[in-house]
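Field reference: sequence -> structure
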Amino acid sequence: MQWTFQPVGGPWFTATVAAVLLALVWVVPRPRPTGGRLWTLRGMRLATVLLTLVALLRPTLTRIETKPLEASLLLLVDRSRSMQVEDSLAGASRWAAARRMLADSAGALARLAEQWEVRAFAFDNGLTEAEVKGGVVALPEEPLGEATAIGATLEETLDRAGAERLLGVVLLSDGAQRALAPRDAAPQMAVRRLIAEGVPLYTATLGQPGVGGRADLAVEDLSASSSAFVKAPTAVTASLRVAGFAGRTFNVQLLWEDADGTMRVVNSTRVKTGPQGGAYPVRLEHTPLEPGERKLTVRVVDAAGGPPEGELVTSNNERSTFISIRDGGVNVLYLVGAQRPGGVPGREQRFARAALDASPDIAVTRRVFDYRRLRAGLRLDATQAPPDVLLIDNLDATALAAEAWRDIALRVRGGMGLAMIGGRQSFGPGGYAATPLARLLPVGCSAAERQRLAEPWRRDVHLDGPLTLRPAEPFGPSHPILQLGGADGPIDWAELPPLLGANRFNPRRLKANAMVLAEAAGAAGAKAPLLVVGQAGAGRVLASAVDSTWLWRLGGYADAHRRYWRQTVLWLAKKDDTTQNPVWVDLDSRLVPRGGRLDLRMGVRRNAQGQAAGAEGDAPELVRYDASVTTPSGKRIDLLTTTGPEATAVFADTAEPGDYTVRVIGLAGDAATTGGPTAGASANGAQQLGEAVARFSVPDQDLELDNPAAEPTLMAQLAAMTSSAGGRAIAPEELPDLLAEFADRDPELEEEVVSRVTYWDTWPFFLLLVGLLGGEWYLRKKWGLV
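Structure field:
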């Protein structure tokens, strides 16, 4: 305990004020009071001066006390179904081994509870506290949890502990994180909180990294594009995980749904397993001939075509998803600019047009501009057929009048596809910053990039070659435009001939809805965006920085070149959107894990005037969607959606495995907000614009037993992350020794508690000071001294 002083203004200032105040004590009032009264007033003044000096000195009494603290030990025991696997010591189940280790630790736990607080929790997808009494942990008889959320469990445990000090955390588990959103938090992120708080983590892994003698085949990692085109080969990839079937041959089949709903085998491949099993990549392909939404399934059968024998779990022998097949029949208008005034067009348009002409369902009309005269306008509806897609190749903005560009922009917003192809006079260098197309393109166009026809080549707005085009994560690898693989397998983008150069897109000026599909892999333009797509109203837009894909054809990749241009046009044409069905629905995924969440987007296509395409008469504004999901058992679940031209919804009731159907009905008119019938023109005045249907699949997946292998590597990694605090991985039989080690530790951890007391800034002090001043004034007034 000690006194400290903090004088106001420093010691000299305080001393000066004290001298002045003490001098005032001896000032005699007029008229001079008698002796007794004078000394009374001087005494009150002196007391006031002393209190004032105390306030100026600001004395503080500091006390430092040492108090003992206690900490808690947390036990986390995995109770998920994978703990039933009998691959622990002496052939016992993992759960039995965990219970036996805790029973052997009862004495250490009892001693530990006398000094520390011991809390135990059983966890699976959630966390439940277990009673600890007399060193015995009350655990359920059987582990029945459907998931293992290690990361979320650690997070929730720390939240429950709050500010209490932790001696350590002991984790008993097989170490395999098997959880679905939102309980799929990475364990490493939770362990970082332990590191920040200096809490050690001790892990004991139960079970073996293999699945022992259990034989199992599983189709995993099914991947297919959400949409494909008619007559375009569609690739489906998956992985066959094999355990316990050494040296066997299996058939992996691709089943495709017919128009009548029948699943038919359209392709298959043989997989011969090695002595150690493992995962085998599988790639299957099918060329659809009819449009529509189709279900596809990848399944594994034995060499004779029957179900494999000797499996305990067969629900993972197949996986299914859905794909939308879009029709062809596209009219393309190709606007081409000459290389220079009076010159000829470049090679890109010639080879691209030849690639598109090879498709009987795509009609291409070309118009070439040589800039020797300004076009007064361009009437798109004056062509043989109104274009579904407009391609602009190296065309300077001065080639068309402002009215023509406004007409093009209006049609793109109404649903026409637009692609601008790279070149000397494309994008900013071509003067498009001053046109309505600048607001539609997914890349920014600047007036500072302008390159006049007669000016020399500007290197700052272009990338020099050679440049290799490669898909950009995350959108490129699965986008329909870049699905160029054939019967020989997926395309190797590194083998395609490099491109001569490209326009330079500023990544910081990409629009909010832009998706980068491809980027450059060359040294000069590494990671530079080359293919960027976006949405402008109801129309799709592509910005292609390259203009030398013709080198692919000359380099021996004619088939890849043809597919690239065909799929580009078909994607821009949105063949899944028809005028007969203007309402559309887009699912975030066609394959949703059990318990997972599905995000949906829905909308209605607009015409060139911005009206709902399916509306009649005065085209009332769309204000509501009736959206529902039908479960595999036939139960209908209505969805809560937002309103407006485009809306969103979320569906999370995916516990039941099987095929789900999403149905969306778009309504227009003021009365649409009141609900009621939704078929045709409803009784309440709402007009039905159209109906869209999509499907998705929830696989019959057993998270815990499909692949019940333990993960000792993960457990060791988590413990090693806290090694600075003493954390480590232990064998399960070392648990009693670890708990005994904790019990032998000194239970009292000292903590210094500092308390400070001040008396000069309290209300009694202030009241005494005011009382002295007021009392002196009162006496002087009473005695006639004022």
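Note: Residues 634 and 742 are 56 Å apart (CA to CA).
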